[in-house]
Amino acid sequence: MHDIVNGLGVAAAFGAVGVVLLLLGVGLVDALTPGKLGHQIWVERNRNAAVVLSSALIGIGGIVFTAIMSTYDDFGKGLIATATFGLLGLVLMAVAFWLLDVVTPGKLGAVLVDPEPHPAVWVTASCNVAVAAIIAASIV
């Protein structure tokens, strides 16, 4: 029974770190795109914004998963690694977004909240997932 209680505590701690990182991801995408992201997705039903946010959340989830699986034997180290790698992923996703915005025509943020479907959304989403995969692969 002690193992179950201990496991629940560990899961709750890692879950809390993961949820905080996911919320930071939402805030990051919201900061990088014009207007209120929640309004864009839930009220205006903007698929472009939803795809970009979803890709960021999937990416962060992958980083968190990999960090937990790689350091589960040492609880403290695992929590720190999860938070650190998750934050690094968020920073690098923001940098990749900025670089993509620099090398492409127009303002990427404005394209992503345009109600008309745009191919740049898939490029941006793929970039989020690729950056997260690179971070996840680097965790040892």
Automatic annotation (TrEMBL):
GO cellular component, one term: plasma membrane
Location in or out of the cell: Cell membrane
Annotated coiled-coil segments of the chain: none
A Pfam family per the record: DUF350
Keyword annotations of the record: Cell membrane, Membrane, Transmembrane, Transmembrane helix
Membrane topology term: Multi-pass membrane protein
Transmembrane segments: 7-29, 49-72, 79-100, 120-139
Family: Belongs to the UPF0719 family.
Protein name: DUF350 domain-containing protein
